[in-house]
Amino acid sequence: MPLQPFDDAFLADLPYDPEVLLFDAIVELDPDGKRVVCQMPTDKPLPFTTSQRVHPVRHPRHVAGATMVHASGMLGFIHSYYLHGMRHAAGWIGYGTHLYQVVFRKLVPPGAPILATCREVRARRGATKHFVRYAFEFRHEGDVCYEGEQSAVWMKVGEGDPIGVDVPE
């Protein structure tokens, strides 16, 4: 699949401003494999990365870990939107609940893009609430730079409904 930029409908549905989407294109949508792959440019300003106090030896500029954790949440939103048709405008919202065995494998200097994969590991789906566990693998120049599993709760809420995030153990 050639790179597919995000369309205006998707960008309008984001629960964050598009400037913190952090991805510029979809590389692959694999409904059968429950997987999405997106491209994350690293040659433009990124949250936390731009605020680093850089030292060429002790603290070289790199894509901050907090940026990658946020990117994983955005990738979960992309997954729910494109593979499950869950729309924020229709009341669906997701919140991260657990980070499992998250590992930062290498420092990523700004420059080449990261290819980020999100795969659904398992899910419990109800009419208005889903609990989903995802596996993430981010690669930079062919090497794994970030990996882990994370969970999120997705809820369909109406106007005036309180949001209660009850997280299963």
From TrEMBL:
Record-linked Gene3D superfamilies: Hotdog Thioesterase
InterPro entries: HotDog_dom_sf
Entry-linked CDD domains: hot_dog
Name of the featured protein: Uncharacterized protein
